[in-house]
Design goal:
Layout (H helix, E strand, L loop, with lengths): L1 H4 L4 H15 L6 E2 L3 E5 L3 E7 L8 E6 L2 E8 L14 E8 L10 E5 L2 E7 L17
Parallel strand pairs: 1-6
Antiparallel strand pairs: 2-3, 3-8, 4-5, 5-6, 7-8
Length: 137
């Protein structure tokens, strides 16, 4: 009866739950993807990345081709704990730059656990769409 009401098969539902649990309870040594947002402004883009507990000495922001990479590590202090819900480990995220982003003049600032990367924009005329014919065959 559940299959009639639920749009996923049991195996797809189980897989989705297992993936969510795996992400929530990652094994030590896994790579964490920080939460982020990219907003568009008239003359620049603003990438905001949540990196609580990291300082500039623990972060690296670099360009690799058309990607902006944010990488760092939040190291766990060795001490006796009675509760531990804080996630430690290596963070890594690569962002594909928009077509009109300039690679020169990118600035990164860290403020209250949020990394802000300002990416200048080039003024370019919009590209017209290119129609691709569809062939039968």
């Amino acid at each position: 009866m559940l299959e009639k009401l639920w749009p996923f098969s049991r195996s797809r539902f189980r897989k989705a739950v297992e993936e969510a649990l795996d992400k929530a309870f990652q094994e030590e040594g896994g790579v964490l993807e920080p939460l982020s947002e990219l907003s568009e402004h008239e003359d620049h883009y603003l990438l905001r990345v949540e990196v609580p507990g990291l300082g500039p000495e623990n972060l690296e922001v670099r360009l690799e081709g058309d990607q902006l990479v944010v990488e760092g590590e939040k190291k766990e202090e060795k001490r006796t704990k009675h509760l531990s819900e804080i996630v430690y480990g290596r963070i890594y995220r690569a962002y594909l730059l928009p077509k009109d982003a300039k690679k020169e003049g990118i600035e990164a600032k860290l403020h209250k656990g949020v990394l802000e990367v300002r990416i200048p924009r080039e003024k370019r005329p919009p590209e017209p769409p290119v129609r691709i014919p569809v062939q039968e065959g």
